[in-house]
Amino acid sequence: MEPIWKSRSEGRISPLAESPPMPMPSLIWKLLKSRGYVSSEEVGGFLSPSLSKLASPFTLKDIDEAVDRLILARMSGETICIYGDYDLDGSTGVALLYYGLKGLGFENVQYYQPSRFTEGYGIHKDALKTIRERGAQVVVSVDCGITAIEEAAFAKELGLDLVITDHHLPRSQPEIILPDCVAVVNPNRGDCESQLQHLAGVGVGFYLLLAIKNRMGVTDFDPREVLDFFTIGTISDMVPLKGENRSLVKLGLKRLAETKRPGLQALVRRLSLENRSLDSYDIGFSLAPKLNALSRLEQGLRPLDIFLCEDYRQAEVLAEQVVNLNAQRKHLQSVLEEKVLAQLDKENPQAAAVFGAAGHPGVVGLVATKVAGITGLPTFVVAWQDQKGTGSARGLEHHILPQALSFASAHLERFGGHAQAAGFSMKADKFSDFRSSVIQYYSENETTAILGGETYDVDAELKDFSENFMDWLKHLGPFGVENPQPLFRLPQVYVTSAKWLKDQHLKVILNDRTARMEGIAFFARGKFDVQVGEKMEAIVEPSWNYWQGSRRIQLMIRALRPLHQ
Fold first, then answer.
1. 3-state class of 4 per DSSP?
2. Which residues contact 167 (CB under 8 A, 6 or more apart)?
3. H/E element, 41
4. Given phi > 0 = left and psi -120 to 50 = alpha, else beta, which region is 516?
5. What is the predicted pLDDT for the residue at 452?
6. Which residues pair with 544 in a beta bridge?
7. Taking the alpha carbons of 19, 21, 22, 25 in that order, is the dihedral positive or negative?
8. CATH architecture observed for domain 453-565
9. Which residues pair with residue 233 across a beta bridge?
């Protein structure tokens, strides 16, 4: 029987006849070949990325102007204000630049973050007024500002020198329009040849620090000290984990596991992530969501408060608050999610999933992510409050969400974002027309529509998943966009045990005559129908299950289907 799932490497990599160049499990070697790493040099470079191969920060356009202005501010004692977006990329970017500039000897450093609900995304004129009144002469944005045309002009009127660092796309009508300011450091500005387009906002901020340190010469500050912030922001913003991102995140995960920052240390401990190595899953699915809940609810505690906390007792209090606020976020998310999924059950969207329901605007992105995962379609969800809608869009790599929002922009008040994650706002009476426009866009652009079916990397047997294999597997990480978590197909396994946990999670014991292993499929009720003794084909993700100080290998089941003889 032909498998219903497609190998990720199908049609890309031709078989390599030579033997593995280094002693590693054969399945690791097979996996690396499937992803295009075929020579000893390619394999070695991927497994052990070197910081010596990082691109020079001076390949970024306008970086010289930014560095010169900031060093001048340091020499003349001027006050610099870091202006960061309210999301986790922006928050980590503010913390990174704050500690980084302080480490480089900048004494007068402030920061400002707009409110998600009362101000919204981007640089605002009222905020610039406040910053000027606080005594700042220079403003450095992080993760925002590329579309702040009017705001940049206003900053000049106020006597503020604005340095923009960002990674979002600029305005184009159809020519690219950039803010008129001291410098616009953005690898995605349209005329930058740095090849650093994969950086998150925090990553652009990190490269600014590297450039300043390089220009100043020898200092006591080591930029690796702020890679914990780089790592959290890069993983949470779901930018490609390739090149510089992967190399720096790999180091940053080690630094985060050993962090001495009171706020992060307390939170890592409260989430039971201490005393072990961390991976991108720990950040993306445990640490980052808890921190994100703070800006989504905005109840007096922000991620920056955790990052900048320097008192260990206070840090313990803040970590407990984070967990409690996350519980509130879960409730608000479930309320909106239930309403949207009820609409999904009544429809069968073909080109795009577009839904609106009354709910908390802070959780709309999480709901959009859930629906996109269910449908495989570009998904647009709007949360209504007082006839005003806050929307979030989520999609796959080829959905190119900002283009669809631009197509429907006549019905929006504002919008922006990345190819796979974007935000927008609208009035209630515009929703019907907006929905029609989005569906029309994706109906006419078939290449951006659903990418159906599960994919996997290579075939495996249960005996392959040994502790030695797992230790090697971690060196292929960190995993994320463009370096996905490896998935393996088990062509033929037997279910020797099956039980439901909390009536929604399926726990099984699988046997393929080479070994027996435990597997679990979360939220599998209605998705998988399994009978003991049944022969099945499966796609699995081997992982460590940590419990009470010990660990064991457990298979995360991504797909199951019966094999009928």
1. coil
2. 143, 186, 187, 188, 197, 199, 200, 201, 203, 204, 239
3. helix 40-47
4. beta
5. 34
6. 553
7. negative
8. Beta Barrel (2.40)
9. none
Contacts of 421 (CB under 8 A, 6+ apart): 238, 365, 392, 393, 394, 395, 401
Residue 107 corresponds to which tokens in the numbers above? 């004494």
Q: Which H or E run contains 236?
A: helix 227-236
In a 3-state reduction of DSSP, which class is residue 543?
A: strand
Q: How far apart are CA 304 and CA 306, in angstroms?
A: 5
What does the alpha-carbon distance between residue 84 and residue 145 come to, in Å, rounded to a whole number? 9
Tell the residue number behind the tokens 């998310």, with chain if given.
Answer: 333
Q: Which pLDDT belongs to residue 527?
A: 77
pTM higher than 0.85: no
In contact, 437 and 490? CB cutoff 8 Å: no
- What pLDDT is recorded for position 550? 79
Q: Which two tokens stand for residue 302?
A: 């922000």
> CA 459: distance to chain centroid?
28
For the chain, the domains span: 57-232, 347-448, 453-565
Q: How many CB atoms neighbour CB 318 within 10 A?
A: 20
230 and 248 in contact (C-beta within 8 Å)? Answer: yes
pLDDT for 22 equals 52
User: Rounded CA gap, 290 and 271, in Å?
Assistant: 9
DSSP at 483: B
Instruction: Give me the residue label for tokens 């005003």.
Output: 388
Q: How far apart are CA 43 and CA 38, in angstroms?
A: 7
> May I ask the CATH class of domain 347-448?
alpha beta
Q: Are strands 183-185 and 161-165 parallel, antiparallel or unpaired?
A: parallel
CATH topology of domain 57-232: inorganic pyrophosphatase (n-terminal core) (3.90.1640)
DSSP collapsed to 3 states, 360-385 = CHHHHHHHHHHHHHHHCCCEEEEEEE
Residue 413 CA: distances (Å) to CA of 276, 365, 409: 46, 18, 8
The three-state DSSP-derived secondary structure of 290-348 is: HHHHHHHHCCCCCHHHHHHCCCHHHHHHHHHHHHHHHHHHHHHHHHHHHHHHHHHHHCC
Q: Tokens in use for 116?
A: 């998600």
Low-confidence ranges of the chain (pLDDT < 50): 1-4, 10-21, 447-453
